[in-house]
Specification:
Blueprint lengths: L8 H9 L13 H8 L3 H9 L6 H11 L3 H5 L8 H7 L4 H8 L12 H8 L10 H15 L3 H7 L15 E3 L23 E2 L3 E3 L14 E4 L6 E4 L9 E4 L8 E4 L3 E3 L12 H5 L1 H24 L8 H6 L7
Length: 328
C-alpha cells in the first residue's frame, strides 16, 4: 500500500533547473540524469512535474536526496506548520511503514503500535492505549527516533487538544443497543464471510488509500477470513457496526474494545490478543460452529502441506476427514 503526500511540482522543477553544475559551466539537471539518480524513469518525472501524479513519501525523500535539498522544499510545507503527518511524510514514511518502525521502540514494556493508532494521533484523537503520561512520553520518543527529529519538535507537532478517551471497564460481553453505522479504521474491520457465514477478525486486509490517508472505496477492499481461510471483497455497507464491547481476558491488559455482537473471534486493539467474540461467549452453539470451521480449515492446510511431501502418507483418519478416497 502506497501513501501519497503533499508535493510541490513547481519547486521540484525549479530546484532541478537550478542545480549547481560547476563541471559543466551551467546549472541544471536533465530529466534523464535525475531519473538515474532516483532510480525511476524519465516519463515518471515528467508526470510529477506536470502534476499528473503525486509521488509517495519515500520517492519524495529520494528526489530531495538527488537534488541535494531538504524534503520540506519539495513538500511545500512551511517550517512553522509542522504536524505529525508532515514530519512522517518528510521522513519518507507511509503510515504502515512508520507503524512498523515505531513498534520496536515500544516493546518493553509492550505498547501496541498500528496504522490505526498512528492515524488517530495524527487526526487529533489520542487512543486509550496511549493516554497515560508515561505511554505518551514513550510514543513521542519513539516517533522522534523514527522520524529523525527532536522530541520537543515532535511534541510541538502534536495536536493542541488531544482528548483522553479512556474507556471504562465493562462486562466481558455486553450488547450496546444503539451504535451508529460508521466506517471504522482498517485495523478494526469486521464483515461476514460469504464462505462460512461467520464474523471474525480478518486474517489479512488489502485496501487502497487517498492522499489524506482515507480509504479509497473506488478500489475493491479484500478481507481474509481467519476461520475458513478464504478471501472476499467488501464495501462500506458490508462492514458491521461495533454494537458490543468485550473485555480482554489477558491479565496484563483487561481493556475494553468495541466489536460487533455477531463476531465469533475479535482482536483487542490494545494488546493484539485474539479472544472469542460476543457471539461465541453468549452462544455455545455458535462457538462450536466456529471451532468446526477452523478445524476443517486446519485439515485442508495440513493436506496441502502433506501433498508437498509425498514421501509421508496421510493417516486413515485424516484421509477420511478430508474426503480423500482410499488408494490400494
Amino acid at each position: 500500500m502506497r501513501g501519497q503526500a503533499s508535493f510541490d511540482r513547481v519547486a521540484m522543477k525549479s530546484t532541478r533547473t537550478a542545480f549547481p553544475r560547476p563541471d559543466r559551466g551551467r546549472d541544471g539537471l536533465s530529466l534523464d540524469e535525475l531519473a538515474d539518480r532516483v532510480g525511476t524513469s524519465r516519463r515518471q518525472l515528467v508526470r510529477y512535474e506536470m502534476g499528473e501524479a503525486t509521488p509517495e513519501p519515500a520517492r519524495i525523500a529520494a528526489l530531495a536526496a538527488a537534488l541535494e535539498c531538504d524534503v520540506r522544499e519539495l513538500s511545500g510545507v512551511a517550517p512553522d506548520a509542522d504536524t505529525l503527518r508532515t514530519l512522517r511524510r518528510n521522513a519518507g514514511l507511509t503510515l504502515r511503514v512508520a507503524a512498523t518502525r515505531v513498534r520496536p521502540h515500544l516493546v518493553r514494556p509492550r505498547l501496541r503500535s498500528s496504522v490505526w493508532l498512528l492515524g488517530e494521533v495524527e487526526a487529533g484523537r489520542l487512543p486509550a492505549a496511549w493516554c497515560s503520561p508515561q505511554n505518551h512520553a514513550r510514543v513521542i520518543a519513539a516517533m522522534a527516533a523514527v522520524y529523525k527529529q527532536s522530541a520537543s519538535r515532535v511534541e510541538a507537532a502534536m495536536p493542541a487538544c488531544l482528548p483522553t478517551n479512556v474507556v471504562q471497564q465493562a462486562p466481558r460481553a455486553e450488547v450496546v443497543p444503539s451504535c451508529p453505522l460508521v466506517t471504522p479504521a482498517p485495523d478494526t474491520w469486521y464483515a461476514r464471510s460469504p464462505s462460512c457465514e461467520l464474523v471474525a477478525s480478518p486474517s489479512s486486509i488489502s485496501h487502497q488509500v487517498h492522499a489524506d490517508d482515507s480509504v479509497d472505496w473506488s478500489v475493491p477492499a479484500v478481507l481474509g477470513c481467519s476461520q475458513c481461510g478464504t478471501t472476499h471483497e467488501v464495501t462500506p455497507f458490508d462492514l458491521l457496526p461495533h454494537d458490543s464491547v468485550i473485555t480482554c481476558p489477558r491479565s496484563t491488559c483487561g481493556k475494553v474494545t468495541q466489536v460487533p455482537a455477531e463476531a465469533v473471534e475479535v482482536v483487542c486493539v490494545h494488546c493484539g490478543l485474539h479472544p472469542p467474540g460476543p457471539a461465541a461467549l453468549l452462544d455455545p452453539a455458535r462457538s462450536n460452529v466456529a471451532k468446526a470451521v477452523r478445524y476443517g480449515h486446519t485439515l485442508k492446510c495440513r493436506r496441502r502441506s502433506r501433498r508437498k511431501r509425498p514421501g509421508k502418507p496421510l493417516s486413515a483418519t485424516l484421509r477420511r476427514s478430508c474426503s480423500i478416497p482410499e488408494t490400494d
